[in-house]
Amino acid sequence: HLNVQTIWMKDESQVAANRESDSNMAQFFYKRAKPLAAVRCLESALRQQPPSASVATRCTININIATVLSQLNEFQKASDVLESSIGLLVADVKAQERVEGERRGSGSQSARETAVPRNTERSFALTALAVCYHNLAVQKLFLDSPAAAIACAAAALRLTSDTRCLASRHPWLTRMERTVEAARQYQEEGGLQQNLSPRPKESAKPSA
Fold first, then answer.
1. How many CB atoms lie within 10 A of CB 158?
2. What is the chain's mean pLDDT, rounded?
3. Helix or strand holding residue 186 (H, E)
4. CB of 63 within 8 A of CB of 93?
């Protein structure tokens, strides 16, 4: 007699192990300046996410993919990945707000206007959304679109301020503030800044 549930659990355990291996190898290749291999591992990890994986979990992998694409000077592709993730996360956050609003009742304060408890699914989604906005701002700078960069970085700061999904002294807040300042300076000075020039591309040869 076959125990279907046991077989499924074993199969799922193997898939989970493969996901973890892909994530670890992606980090390994990224740290050793092999972004092409890192992207392949991250994409594999994303494909193997279970149906129960949250939107924020999937989009966090997309954030990493976009980071590596940027290292390959694929700024438009990185922007596309982040913009797609922003759309998914915004829809997910709105759905969570509706559920929270229904739970509290129509007479209660809007879920959007209150601080979000830390280490919750909604906090995770909001944090991922803020990081997406910030990283998209960086890509917009590389694409010579300072106005869009300012808007994206400001959206990240506004989101963290309204929901307090990040601690008041979290390093990401400082990073977001600096990105807004850099984008404004970039817009005022005009032209590509030297520190935003494309990086040398990695050879397309398979990694050893």
1. 13
2. 81
3. helix 171-189
4. no
